[in-house]
Amino acid sequence: MRMTVVAEYYDEPAEGINVVSKTLIDGMRARGHEVAVIPPAVALSRLPRLLLKPAPVTIFTHGPGPRTVLVSRILRSLSRTRILWVATRPDLGACPRWLCGGRSAHAILCNRPRADLAGVASDARMLTQPIGIAPERLVDGGQAPVWAARRRDGVPLAVHVGHLRRSRGLDRLCEIKALLGDRIDIVVVASPYFESDPCLMAELLAAGVHIDRGFVPAIADVYRAADLYLFTPPPETEGAIELPLGVLEALACGLPVISTPFGALPEVLAGTVGVEFAPSEDFAQAVVHWVDRGAANPRPAGLPNHLNAHRITERVLELASGTE
């Protein structure tokens, strides 16, 4: 089957959406499908070409946001391509009213049913499927991070992987250090590709949080060098995909997780051993309780089967063929 995928494609993606896109595109190609990739930023300028020679299937993996809805509406009106959204991070709050209520996507693969998706794709068929990660992504590099050598006996080491931005709730890490002091060590492995908030960085360092901005060839080494993963973004923010990459990678490496009830995490990880949820205002205290329990804390058995991203390829093919 010939298909167009509107996505960013990188050989070594670091962002959650791009990891999903690569897994899907590689999975389609491995099954013998002809896949053309168009970056989302140029989707509007490529519309004439897409309309002149439409693929039988057009897949969007970013968002969806207003631009995805607009391009989909035009393609739906003027071509016979079957339009599919892989809803990694719906961002439809700013969608103008004239884009709501009409026909856009034929089908949507999503982590959970959402009224905002139905509101911009009135007749779309929805398939609920957690958009996870590929387990083989978490291959050991055999080299523990430099900071792992500074570990202190009997002191747990907690880690967070992501952007150094205030919207990520990283001020909670300062609260944790204020409560626990030397009873815990915390490392933030920050993206080397995105600019960090200098004021936030200064606050974290002053609180005793270690920051690592170096490139990590094998991210699994980071998780396997730690005792606990902390995911702090407030649930009301839209700064990460619905199933954040760091949480899933930590689980795949058997690392316990304490997270805010962000995105689709509470529904998808309900009852998962080694995962705790705490609202932002209680987050620091939840970490204190975790440290107090010590060896009694359970560890995850690995990535739950329903979060294996290779399932996405099968579900997308079902939606693309209309056999779901």
How would you explain this protein's 3D organization?
The protein folds into 2 domains: 145 residues, Glycogen Phosphorylase B (Rossmann fold); 170 residues, 3-Layer(aba) Sandwich (Rossmann fold). Helices cover 31% and strands 16% of the residues. The protein contains 11 helices and 12 strands. The strands form 2 sheets. A 6-stranded parallel β-sheet has the order 2-1-3-4-5-6, sandwiched between helices. A 6-stranded parallel β-sheet has the order 9-8-7-10-11-12, sandwiched between helices. Strand 11, helix 9 and strand 12 form a beta-alpha-beta unit. The longest helix is centred in the first third of the chain and has 15 residues. It starts with a strand and ends with a helix.
Concise account of the structure shown:
By secondary structure, the chain is α/β, with parallel strands linked by helices. It has helices at 16-30, 47-52, 66-78, 115-120, 171-180, 198-207, 220-224, 245-252, 265-268, 283-293, 310-321; strands at 2-6, 34-38, 57-60, 82-87, 107-110, 125-128, 157-162, 185-190, 210-212, 228-231, 257-259, 275-277.
Tell me which CATH architecture of the largest domain applies here: 3-Layer(aba) Sandwich
The CATH homologous superfamily of the largest domain is called: Glycogen Phosphorylase B
Radius of gyration (Å): 21 Å
Order of helices and strands: EHEHEHEEHEEHEHEHEHEHEHH
GO molecular function: glycosyltransferase activity; hydrolase activity
Organism: Yoonia vestfoldensis SKA53
Protein name: Glycosyl hydrolase domain protein
Keywords: Hydrolase
